[in-house]
Amino acid sequence: MDLELKDHRVIVTGAAAGIGLETARAFSAEGAKVAVCDVDRSAVEALAGSDPTIMASVCDVADRNMMADFVARIAGRMGGLDTLVNNAGIAGPTGAIEEFAPEEWDRCIAVCLTGQFNAARAAVPLLRLSSNPSIINMSSLAGRVGFRLRTPYAAAKWGVIGLTKSLSIELGSDGIRVNAVIPGLVAGDRQRRVLEAKAQQLGQSYGEVESQAFSYTSIREYVTPRQIADQILFLASKRSRTVSGQAISVCGDTQMLA
């Protein structure tokens, strides 16, 4: 299927690895102009060295001025902006609410929620000039069903759903579509680290925690980053021109997070 994304101008945040990197490469393969940012300098440098078709920069989405400068600079290089993919996020602490440091809460909210606000705030004036504008926010099942011992992350991802719905209403008259994607258990190092931290917190083995996680899922297999990227590309294409304000799950029908 040709999604007609050639020369489509895209920013993907938090995209030096994982879902973000897979998404950036998928857009690039469709002929889009792609720029990414990430706080991990070494990963950004590795990406810039391995794929010169993707513009890669170091940027902390929680830093409002840095994010505004990045968006303005990249839009200038690409000649505008058509899609913002708010992918940047961190796992945050694993533990009971009275045990983790308040600073860990602050950082998780700053990256996972406020970072999306910072990026959208900078991007919206540019998106208003596009003929096919969209914002795609990365949420999580934790933002739909909650997540024991992961309160900061769940709270941030619930906030992403509210941000998405509200911006969809606010920006609809400008023709800007705003949607959220809700991944399930995604294959990769990040998911492994989350399950390892949970196993340590509960005094269980990795296998026990993984098995319990899949016990609430109808299709008991990991979602791949490419499946998430495919959903994002569709939402950025004109084929989804009347899809907005939605939180779309790619999760194998996961009913809860233990």
Topology of helices and strands:
Elements: E1 9-13, H1 18-29, E2 33-38, H2 41-50, E3 54-58, H3 64-78, E4 83-86, H4 102-127, E5 134-138, H5 142-145, H6 151-171, E6 177-183, H7 189-202, H8 206-214, H9 225-236, E7 247-250
Parallel strand pairs: 1-2, 1-4, 2-3, 4-5, 5-6, 6-7
Question: Can you give a write-up of this model?
Answer:
- The chain has a single domain (9-184, 223-250), classed as NAD(P)-binding Rossmann-like Domain (Rossmann fold, 3-Layer(aba) Sandwich).
- The protein has nine helices and seven strands.
- The model has no long low-confidence stretch (mean pLDDT 93).
- It has a seven-stranded parallel sheet, with helices on both faces.
- Helix 7 packs across helix 8.
- The radius of gyration is 18 Å and the shape is globular.
- The protein is of the alpha/beta class and 258 residues long.
- It has helices spanning 18-29, 41-50, 64-78, 102-127, 142-145, 151-171, 189-202, 206-214, 225-236, and strands spanning 9-13, 33-38, 54-58, 83-86, 134-138, 177-183, 247-250.
